[in-house]
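okkk here we go again. third time trying to get the adenosine-5'-diphosphate bound version out, last two times i messed up the smiles copy paste (missing a bracket lol). double checked this time i swear
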Amino acid sequence: MAPSTIDVPGAPPKPDLTREMVRVESVTKQFDLRHNHSLKELAFAALQRKKLKDEFTALNGVDLTVHAGETVGLIGFNGSGKSTLLKTISGVLFPDEGRVMLRGRVAGLIEVGAGFHPDLSGRENVYLNGAILGMTRSQIDDRFQDIVDFSEIEEFIDTDVKYYSSGMFLRLAFAVAVHTDPDIFLVDEILSVGDEPFQKKCIKRIRELQVAGRTMIVVSHELAMLQKLCSRIVVLEHGKIIYDGDPRTAVARLRATAA
Ligand SMILES: Nc1ncnc2c1ncn2[C@@H]1O[C@H](COP(=O)(O)OP(=O)(O)O)[C@@H](O)[C@H]1O
Ligand SMILES: [Mg+2]
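finally!!
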């Protein structure tokens, strides 16, 4: 993991710990693994009377409470369940056990450009994605220019998104998301994708959202950046929360796991 070079000015504001915005209770999520075992594996399993594992537990009894104005970092190695947890909170995935309670409107970038359509232009995608994220047409009209300005890709706004580079795609997707003004904002890995000037701009915007009292959960591998951005960091390992608290301790905990 390369150390982050992104400067994060200031400190996160104090959250309102009396107001719960997200409550995840004993959430378990399993995925069916496709039955793609070879004939040989199946034969051996049958001979040994062993059941082949066909379910994978991506989240295993996760409890998480996020308060108003908190920015919670979510870290863990690949496959530890970070995206699955965000998707469960956003309602894209439904938990097998447990429940998720939310106060207010949730939006964000679950995956870069999720909800973007390759055969539509940037402009059309702003409207499509804005609608998916809960904005009305007139709200999007009002914010359209701000979104385009933020993305810095005005030149290409009427080009089909399939011709965009991944960086352009990311810029537009992030620009739409940060202009939707959700109560709870979920950010998955996108901060690692853009170039440095754009990352700085995203962080500045996240700070503004923090100051405005928004609640955020941010997944990133940029540990140093996250440590400065967040009021709290949660460490996931094999679908379980192994630490939840002080950002520095969380990062040290993850690094210790790697050793
Ligand atoms: N739709 C799916 N079907 C099957 N397995 C999945 C699916 N989505 C995620 N997984 C598995 O769940 C685990 C957790 O994935 P994910 O939440 O994406 O991890 P992270 O975001 O921390 O890298 C991974 O092992 C992944 O392969
Ligand atoms: Mg992920």
